[in-house]
What does this fold into?
Amino acid sequence: MAKKFGAEEFEAIFHCYKDMVFKTAYLILGDGEKASDALQEVFIKVHKSLDAFDPQKGKFKTWLYRITVNQCISERRRKGSASFSLERLEEEGLHLRDTNSQLPEELLMKQEESKAIKQAMQSLDAKHRAVLALRYFDELSYDEIAETLGIPLGTAKSRLNTAIKVLRQKLVEGGFIP
Amino acid sequence: MNCKEISELLLTYLDEEVSPEEREVIEAHLSACSSCREELEALAALQRKLRQGLNLVAAGASPSPHAWATIKERLAREERRRIPLLDLAKSKIREGMKRLRSRPLWQKALASTLVVVLIIGVSLLVPAIGSQGSGFEGVLEMVRLAHSQVHSYRCQHMEISWYEISDPLREGWRTEESDWEGAYSAPDMASMRRTVWIKEPGWPEHDVDVLETVYVGDKVYRRQVGDTGWRVEDTSPVDEGWLLATTNPIWAVFDSLTGVEQLPTENINGIECLHYRGRADMDAYIDKFSDIDFVSDMEEEWLRHMDKTVEIWIGQNDYLIRKYEVNERNPYSMPNAEALSTPAGSEFRYTSRGVTKFYDYNEAVQIEAPM
It folds into this structure.
């Protein structure tokens, strides 16, 4: 079978999907450096098996999400949870103390909330983080989530329910929601 | 449905993923139950915050502008890793030949004589080393010395690998067979034609890939079946590193062998050969290989579980490698590392057998740039 994708096509695919893969990995792994590693591993794998990808078996994006999530889950399983110290959060761009005086109140509140959500996410394991990222950031349907994770639809629903319950409890405990 | 049952469905309802029948029941219940309406509003607010929060977090995260360059370099390196055996001895040879070519003729003659003297000298030592074991370390030194005087060779490689994949959708063995033949001519020319057959469970036909690579000077030319022409690139510093000195991966394997036993001599293509068999100490191999090329933590973990046995046949009189065979078996189930597009939790196991033969040492080899 002849190669369907040359070097230029592969580069175009990378630029088209790099943000999607990186941001999803970042939300699951909670760490920019690990997300960079995951981005690299994912596209190395995509390159290895791009020609074997069969569009009749599923959408390219779903296939790409599946590789991304699998990579992130195996990465977290191997290295343990990422550290989510306040210093870490600030290093990664949430400079709350320094920028307080310059930000409109609404944006400040949003930043506080996103920090709280990021912290609450760490209480979940990678599988549950993955369903939240796929649903509420990547906006995948339940069917697409099930296909991406290779799990039955019912499992996808219950996993999402569990993830939301734990997240909500953490946000309540932190006083971010009533 | 009672409130508890309804509350279990509210998230799915908000995500518009309930069936029409469920929707009807939920909406009927909501119209009559204020606490469930409050719960629905709280969940909707949580979803909004979650969406906003995740988008804000993700907005501040972008891939490095160097990401593509890193991946491109790694792909090139992996491509080279597929053909590492072609470069056997190339490093030493390359260095040695460069030095030799720059010397006056009388020095070249002296250098060759010196090698002969050294070979005889070390030959005399080998039985003494042998008395402490198989004498393989001494022989390996001889092999290095002999290969430092090689300026050309041809070689053939045959390999078959099996990957067992536990993905329920694609259960079975993926087999990958590859053959290649190559030629090397000092100081900086090499050519290789590699054919790979891949058979995957559920795929009726083998996927065949043919890759041709030619190194000439500081350029490398590549062509794959289906390509309309050759791609030409400069050899990168990584290429240079790959080709240099002690950097050849096969030496890392030979240098890591333990418990080497000497077997009866065998005749390979009319040449009587010393025959050794040993098992690679993978910790030692990883240490040596890490000096040559980048090994990720995941690869390292996998390599540590590898059972790698090697047999090597060395010309009895000239100490040139005529053949070696590498058998690998890895019972370690590395989750999701290679079994691509498989569900979470998929595993694989790996077995491989490769045989490489060398011939036509120091005979004329014609290698030309294809364009």
